[in-house]
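Notes from the 1:1 (GR / supervisor)

We went over the backlog. Supervisor wanted to see one worked example end to end before approving the batch request, so GR pasted a single chain during the call. The sequence is below; no edits were made to it. Supervisor asked that the structure be written out right there so they could see what the output format looks like.
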Amino acid sequence: MVELFVMEYMTVLGMTMVLLFLDSRYSRRRTILTVCSAIVLVMAAVAAIYLTTGLGTTIRIYTLVAHVPSLIICLALSRFRGWRLVFQLLSAILFCMLIHHGAGLIYYLSGNRFWVLLLSYAVLSAGVIWFLLRFLRPLFLQTLLELRRGWWLMCLVMILYYVVAIYLIPGYVGITRSSTILKPAVSLLMVGFYSILMFLFFSIRKEAEIRHGAQISALQLSALQNRMEAVRVTEDAIRMERHDLRHRLQAVAELVARGDREAALDFLDAAKERLDERKAIRWCRPPVLDAVFSSYFDQAKNEEIPVDAAVALPDKLPVNEGELAVVLANALENAIHANLKLPPERRGIRCRMMAAPSLMLELSNPCDGKISFDDQGLPVAQREGHGIGTQSITLFCKKHGAVCQYDLTGDIFRLRLVL
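Structure output shown during the call:
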């Protein structure tokens, strides 16, 4: 019965590993419920096969019984396809086998004491799961988003390990001497290989952080430069108006002297309107956000896109101003692009943003209606290379625990963000 216990435990552990490496398209509750249901079904199948056919047959077909359902779960739940999906599954199998081989070796060296096997499984499983949750899973999920090439090569090495450890080396770790020595040795080599992969993942994350920082700096610089240029143009216009003020006052004085007060008031109202048109609009107190709003609202105005905006933000924000500026820039850029597909009479952008009782943003614009959403409610990119802005907003929300919602009502696309 020790063998049955080991197989049942590895079923639970292996599918738990699949869950840890999975970036699911569905809610956490639905994902956990699906995986737990699969665990119960596979455990029942393993027990039934063991009781009806015996240990030998169960060991021979165990990988088929356990790994095929795991593959089906990945296909059904993972947001990734292709080699990245295969790598998710193989990584889960690798760490599961590391625990199994380590515990089996300790069990064999202890003289086949069952309590030693239980203790080994408990300690190794707890340590590996802690390591995955604390370090590897966040790094792994970010790499899945950032790295586009090379997955097939990593999968090739791990598939080779899978074939060697399961099919080419006979026996069971902890039972036969040869497999107890050879399989942990091969697994130890895979630890070195995965350590190299982790170094690669760390490099990719560092590069992504540098790229993100450069994006924030470039956006800040560009927005502030545009803002300074707008202020300079406004100052030049006001300087010209001040220069012409003497002539206008002389004309008003002449009209008053003639008793034509109505014409004088009309003349002053027209002058006031010209000054108001020249006045620079300040959208909010934080300078970078104010510059972003000004830059993109000016772009919208130049493209004949009406803007209805109401922004109320304090000097201090609950998040980094540069990161929030990137979110706003991506959202406003997407809104402008959607408007450009429409005739001028249908265009428009409506923006509402406030900081009390919490930081909230609502941005809406008309669109052509050709928008579809994935299972998590995120807009699906219509063409290859698009959707980067949405991914950036999603990463911001995951980092800061913000809630982001997209919806399409009629031909009005709406983004809501609450932090």
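Supervisor's comment: The chain has two domains: 2-203, 282-419.
Batch request approved.
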